DNA sequence: GTCAATGCTTTGTCAGGACATATTGACGTA
DNA sequence: TACGTCAATATGTCCTGACAAAGCATTGAC
């Protein structure tokens, strides 16, 4: 179970060495070069092989341990435990999920307007009532079936959504490109019966709806986005891999 | 925004120094001694104050950064961003959730038997059909209202549930006490309408049910537990704090 | 008065070393 | 054969030291 691992380092790259190692290790695991159960060489040997110091090698391994892909045991060694780790729910984005699954999909923008926040919305965004916000309603289809109704509010001060084509790319992707970096999100997942509007839009009949409320924060602790989404439960579920540390 | 922090270290304790620091820092934040927005001293100053090296101090801070409570900015400093972080979904356990909320609750064990796994269950537990397993059905009440139906399967080889009082303590708590350590769990959260049995047990009428399927793994990558739970959506929702790294 | 250059502060990355401790297996003894 | 001891192995913790890079504020030139 030793390594036919070929890890290459680029010391002139701005990408930290430990990150280069972690990425290539993760790739090897995901591609099955290293399978669950395989032991990797000990830290010191790996560090020597790659011409790195032990702390740097440890930092690389630690990244994958945190992701739940590797397990270290003192006196024993480090082992692969899970090959496929579903994205750590890195702030679940439906669009990404669907794209990854390769399903045919499209999004219809029902409403995109800049307006003054009412009291409820302002509170959700930690703003004052009357502050400028974006209100965004979208309807998402998979294989031409309506799947989800996505309602979002964002502080207008943070990002400009004018002329943004939200039909062809996800909201989170746009935020990333605009330099808005998410750090923490509080999510609440529940279920409920559809109301009249939802039933009409989602054509869900008597299918229960899965609901997701999310408040997302940036580095500074400001609210970036508040979302209230509903999904047809016969077509969608949240899948999460949790790691206990 | 400087520190009236009083962190005490015990170098004779088996608890690592970085962990002692992290725990006391986290407590200070949770208790509001350090409020969101406050800046903490720089790493070097803190290390000197506590008589630690900078890497040790960094390691302590890093754990709180990973939890989403602190944010570091190069050239600027380290700041508190979130005071209350909902348990990182450390493998959500309903019992803990309810206990924390201080609600009056009780659990009824509907079935607890040791049996041979049928093919479906064996596959879920990554066992062979016919292997010994535990089957556990529980009904949970809050304020005397039925809230959730919990169905679990566990490999009999891993833990003995004979004479375990699952009415008065959570399953996960018992597993921890038995030395079974959880590392990774795959969860799937969805919604559905109640079937006849569920409607009868949960008296849910037409309330949609929130469903949670979970497969939990230990350090070795073996399946510890498979659970299929349903919750009354009018009484329960999953709350999760996600951290993007 | 505006803007660019510069320097200081703080975190980020990396190296190398030392000792502690858990685990395993081999060895020797009862 | 069974059990305890001990050594080898690998990770865990902690230290010192150094330089890089990003942010911010101040300074200086135009």
UniProtKB/TrEMBL annotation, chains A, B:
Q: What SMART domains would the database entry show?
A: HTH_GNTR, UTRA
Q: What organism, scientifically named, is this protein from?
A: Aeromicrobium phragmitis
Question: Which is a Pfam family this sequence falls into?
Answer: UTRA
Which Gene Ontology biological process is one annotated for this entry?
Answer: negative regulation of DNA-templated transcription
Q: Which GO terms describe its molecular function?
A: DNA binding; DNA-binding transcription factor activity
Q: Which residues form the HTH gntR-type domain?
A: 15-83
Print the keywords alphabetically.
DNA-binding, Transcription, Transcription regulation
Q: What is this protein called?
A: GntR family transcriptional regulator
Gene3D superfamilies reported in the protein's UniProt record: Chorismate lyase-like (3.40.1410.10), Winged helix-like DNA-binding domain superfamily/Winged helix DNA-binding domain (1.10.10.10)
Question: Which InterPro entries does UniProt cross-reference here?
Answer: Bact_HTH_transcr_reg, Chorismate_lyase_/UTRA_dom_sf, Tscrpt_reg_HTH_GntR, UTRA, WH-like_DNA-bd_sf, WH_DNA-bd_sf
Kindly give the SUPFAM superfamilies that the UniProt entry links to this protein: Chorismate lyase-like, Winged helix' DNA-binding domain
């Amino acid at each position: 179970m030793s390594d036919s691992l070929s890890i290459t380092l680029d010391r002139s790259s701005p990408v930290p060495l430990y990150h280069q190692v972690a990425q290539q290790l993760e790739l090897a695991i995901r591609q099955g070069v290293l399978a669950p159960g395989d032991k990797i060489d000990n830290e010191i040997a790996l560090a020597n092989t790659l011409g790195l110091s032990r702390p740097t090698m440890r930092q690389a391994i630690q990244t994958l341990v945190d992701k739940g892909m590797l397990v270290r045991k003192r006196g024993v060694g480090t082992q692969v435990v899970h090959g496929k780790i579903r994205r750590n729910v890195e702030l679940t984005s439906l669009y990404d999920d669907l794209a990854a699954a390769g399903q045919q999909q499209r999004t219809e923008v029902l409403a995109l307007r800049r307006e003054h926040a009412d009291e409820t919305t302002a509170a959700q965004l930690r703003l004052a009532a009357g502050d400028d916000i974006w209100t965004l309603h979208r309807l998402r289809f998979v294989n031409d079936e309506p799947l989800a109704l996505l309602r979002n509010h964002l502080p207008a001060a943070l990002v400009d959504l004018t002329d943004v084509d939200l039909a062809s790319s996800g909201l989170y992707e746009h935020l990333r490109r605009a330099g808005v970096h998410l750090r923490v999100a509080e999510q609440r997942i529940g279920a409920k019966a559809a109301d009249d509007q939802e039933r009409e839009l989602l054509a869900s009949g008597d299918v229960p709806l899965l609901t997701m409320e999310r408040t997302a924060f940036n580095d500074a602790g400001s609210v970036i986005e508040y979302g209230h989404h509903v999904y047809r439960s016969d077509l969608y579920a949240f899948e999460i891999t949790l790691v206990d540390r």
